[in-house]
Amino acid sequence: MVLEYIIITIYTICLLLIFMYALAQLNLLFNYLKYRNKLDDSPKFDFNNPEEIPFVTIQLPVYNELYVMKRLLKNIAKIDYPIEKLEIQVLDDSTDESVLTTAIQIKKIKALGIDIQHIQRTNRQGFKAGALKEGLKTAKGEFIAIFDADFLPKANWLRQTIPYFKDAQLGVVQTKWSHINRNYSTLTKIQAFALDAHFTLEQVGRNSKGHFINFNGTAGAWRKECIYDAGNWEGDTLTEDLDLSYRAQFRNWKFKYLEKVETPAELPVVISAARSQQFRWNKGGAENFQKMIKRILRNKNSSFKTKIHSVLHLLNSTMFTCIFLVSVLSIPMLYIKNDYAHLKPYFYSMSFFVVSSLIFFVCYWFMYKKIYGSGFKNFIIYIGAFLTFFSIAMGFSLHNTIAVLEGHFGKKSEFIRTPKFNIKTIKDGWENNKYIKKRPSVHVILEGILALYFIFGMYSAFIVGDQGGDFGLFPFHFMLFAGYSYVFFKSIFSKA
């Protein structure tokens, strides 16, 4: 009975943590719905007055981006801003032939009279954070706009964002990501689904109530003074953007999220690229939780509610660990439930997962209909999109759990960049991309085993107990089987 009680305890704690996170998401939805029609009366620079237009530096941190550098630089050269008040820094840590092609493109842009610098380091110390910090030493701008290599800001991007910095306490302006290849495949669709929820529900929901939000590493602008005041970029976590965001808000700098300003970008089209990105984001979240938790709890300038949201924000990736444990333990729980009738009261905890799932379903629906519109037809499509997203997200839970545990236990790893492809439609090829990881991770084998494990879970529904089976967890186990099977087969065959 000791083992059974241990399983029940772990299972229940994980379900309660997921439920708490779901309640926080519901609160963010309420915040979002209250704020969405609010008039923005923020002070702004008057760009009709040349004296109010500040100097801006655009930083482009890149590393071995052979396939997208030309596209990136041609796009940045079209930025509509007074040429005498604009500087572009290409922070190039590349070690391949892209260095030469980038240099050629930069020379062409310089010929147009644009102030563009090709900054190269002798080492990758601090990775992206180190490159940004190095560029900051010579940056002329009072404000620093940052774009990753796969982002394509519109020509008026600076004119839509920089004016808000008239508020002297504003440290960061972050814009919404949009996706140029959203409909390329199932993989890109589920990535877009998750990111849309973050950039609609979470960023607005937190920012509207003054809770901590995060600069998303790209498609945003910083006040240079804010970066220095917060302690500058640090490379001791894999999510340097989240790290500096929290340190800046501890110093009482304000952040502004602009949902209506969209910055197009490319989603990873191959699962190995998505896996590396997910690993970095989830491990970085756990690293930042360990780094920030004491400062959050001791911060005298934050309300209790802001502290709760901050803790759950940094534990976002840790929810994958809870999902993984709940899923693995659900099959033993199925047998315990049917073998020990006197433990029946404990199984009311199972309802927490159903309630949590319904909360996520409702929250994501508001995000979905904001983008695609409401109506019965779209709602039916949404149900399929949500179930697909939920299944595959659970299929990633082992992979993300390993990342989270490494983050919490302090295991250091290199910053693995996400390969870029310059792909928009299914006609575009990616198979010859030199940056694709050719050999799948050993974790993929475990994901295949888990797919088989949940086949056993579905089979168990027919044989447990003496009342003709128990099918309460059957849909859950089917979704887990589908999710792990998808991740396993796509990882083995490296298909988009």
Give the topology, please.
Blueprint (H helix, E strand, L loop, with lengths): L1 H34 L20 E7 L6 H8 L9 E7 L5 H13 L4 E6 L6 H10 L6 E4 L10 H5 L8 E10 L6 H22 L12 E4 H6 L10 H11 L3 E12 L5 H28 L5 H11 L4 H21 L10 H23 L3 H20 L1 H12 L34 H21 L10 H20 L3
Parallel strand pairs: 1-2, 1-4, 2-3, 5-7
Antiparallel strand pairs: 4-6, 5-6
Features:
496 residues, alpha/beta, Spore Coat Polysaccharide Biosynthesis Protein SpsA, Chain A, seven-stranded mixed β-sheet, globular
Short account of what is shown:
With 496 residues, the chain is an alpha/beta fold. The protein has helices at 2-35, 69-76, 98-110, 127-136, 157-161, 186-207, 224-229, 240-250, 271-298, 304-314, 319-339, 350-372, 376-395, 397-408, 443-463, 474-493; strands at residues 56-62, 86-92, 115-120, 143-146, 170-179, 220-223, 254-265.
Give your account of this protein's structure:
It is a single chain. With 496 residues, the chain is an alpha/beta fold. The chain has 2 domains: 2-32 and 317-493, no CATH class; 47-268, Alpha-Beta Complex (Spore Coat Polysaccharide Biosynthesis Protein SpsA, Chain A). 53% of the residues lie in helices and 10% in strands. The protein has helices at 2-35, 69-76, 98-110, 127-136, 157-161, 186-207, 224-229, 240-250, 271-298, 304-314, 319-339, 350-372, 376-395, 397-408, 443-463, 474-493, and strands at 56-62, 86-92, 115-120, 143-146, 170-179, 220-223, 254-265. Strands 3-2-1-4-6-5-7 form a 7-stranded mixed beta sheet, with helices on both faces. Helix 9 (271-298) crosses helix 14 (397-408) and helix 11 (319-339) packs parallel to helix 15. The radius of gyration is 24 Å and the shape is globular.
